[in-house]
Fold:
Amino acid sequence: MEHLSTQEQQLCDFLKTQPRVHNNRYTESAENALLQALFWSLACGRPDYLKLFFPENTRPLPNATWKLRRAQGNSDGDEFTEAARGKACGHIFKAGEATYRCKTCSQDDTCVLCSHCYDASDHTGHMVYVSVSLGNSGCCDCGDPEAWKLPVHCSIHTPHADDSPNKDKGKAPTLPQDLVEAIRMTIGRVFDYICDVISCSPEQLRLPKSRETILLDEKLSRLTSRYYQGDIVEEPCEFALLLWNDEKHTVNEVRDQVARACKVSIAEGMQRANETDDIGRSIVKYGFDVDDLLHVSKVIEQIKVTVTIRSARDTFREQMCGTIIEWLSDIAGCSVGPDHNILRQVICEEMLKEWSTGSEASNKFVGMKGIDDHQIEDNAAFNNISRGLMFPDAAAWRAAALAANARADDSDDDDDEDGDDGDAEVDEDDASDEDDDDEVDRIMMNLVGGDDDGSDFGEGVATVVVPVNAAFSFQGTQTTDADGDIDMNANDTETSPMEESEATMA
Structure:
């Protein structure tokens, strides 16, 4: 096993045991405990190093949420501090805030400056437009070279002329070496932890659920012993029923269905529906009885919303990953003592490193394989209806086409066996099904259209019973009716509902 330092092993143990410590409920207290542990790990567990992150009298209280950006500067204006030099501003405009567009400097009409960056740059003699932001979108483009055809020299964000990448090369590091190593270890370990957890989370949310698959998912989601020295096995195991946002249902629809399925008040159902709408998912029920959760899930799914059932332990860890990602975003633009780039640089470097796998990674492969989505179901149902309208007796004709295609394959196989060209046999199982479907569709279209496709369909058609009065939209001679379009079939009349519909659409 790879050797871990004492501090790294302590961090791994902390991340592993948090679900049990907080009884699988990810509360504000659990979030605060996680954030504090991450900051102490960054600081190598030393109070004097922690002061490099949180300047004098800025360290939050133990029961508060620790945010580094808020501690190192105004939470609404830290993009204007010295630590922001050399970075893009990115200030997000609020409703009623002034925006400045310099037509002389900007690439297009969407490139704007906030008031701070406009005042900190020189636009004398330029054509400048001032507008008021609606507050629904947009940010300051200062520091983004692609936004400007003329350089915008901002005294806040533009790097100094002597700030070259190799300026400090060869000099002793400003920060203590053990602090730098602790920062790198902590950030690298949490990246691995995120991958360990998320790689076990099922991507295919609408696969059929059963007691066996849910229990198997719990086993495959355990953290392995390589870094975590074995996972915690709970007996009995608690599970969580999660509701996912699909952008198709209204909040009231979800509210009523959750209240009905979980037998809770309308207010509780509304709370879960709003949470799903806000963050994308919500835990609607905990329980130790998998069969009961399956029953509740079937009731909720009656309106075609997506629900999943996972162990409460793994659901807690997924919520931890959300906090860790926000934490990485929080510290990326901050300083450690006099070093304004160490956190951003280490995050980028660790993100590019290979993942040190610490779990079964049972769902590490992504893609559409096996995903059973409502939209796919709806499209398939629509296609089936369309085929039924075009081919009323499609089932019988398809059976005949399949038989003809099978005989054609047998004939090809016989030719291959008789041949002596010595060609190597090629295995193309992956493409055979698609080729067969294409061939069957081609035969059917030729049959309906009366064309000879060269197959031996005629020899096998007698084995398939096809109704004598089978009618197809393409069968027979096409005639033009009084309004100039092609008759749907021979029984169509000028006063039929179809004709009235055609006249209305015309």
